[in-house]
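Worked example 2:
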Amino acid sequence: MDTAWLGVFQRSALTEIGGYDERFVRNQDAELNLRLRRAGYEVWLDRRLIVDYQPRSTLQALGRQYWKYGWWRMQTGRKHRKLALRQLAVPLAVLVLASSVAASFWMPWLLVLPLGYVAALVAQTFVSKRDLDHRERAMMVGALVTMHFSWAVGFLTSASISVLRRNRRDG
C-alpha cells in the first residue's frame, strides 16, 4: 500500500525521516508515507478501523477540496521526482475528454468519449450502491465528475505553474 489516510506512527520512524513536511497544506499523509516507504518502513491499513468523516455539503466545496488535492499531489511528485501512472491517468483523461468535446464541433463522433465516461460513472453507481434512487445516482455522478475534473485541473495548474516558474528562473 502506498499511503493510508490518518495513521499511527512509531515516533522513531517520524524522527528518522524528519516528520511531516509542514510546507504541504494538503497531501501531507501521502508525502510522509512516501518518505517512510523509501526509508524501509511499511504502510498498512487496518480495515477494522472506523473513522468519522464529514463530506462536503456542496459540489462547489467538493470541487475546491479536490482542486487542492490535485495541486498538492503534483507538488509531492515535483518534490520527490516521482509520480505513479495512476496519478497521471485522471489529468490525461480530463484533457482527452475536454479536447474531444471541443473537437466535436468538427468531428461529432468524438462525443462518444465524454458520453462513454458518463455512462461508465452511471454504471459505477449501480455496482457500488444498488439501493440508490435516481436523484441519488445523479448526485453521485455529479460528485464523481466534480472530483475527477477538479483534481485534474488542480494537478495541471500546479504542473503548469511549476514549469513557468522554472522557465522564468532558467530563462
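The mean pLDDT is 90. The chain is about 65% helix and 0% strand.
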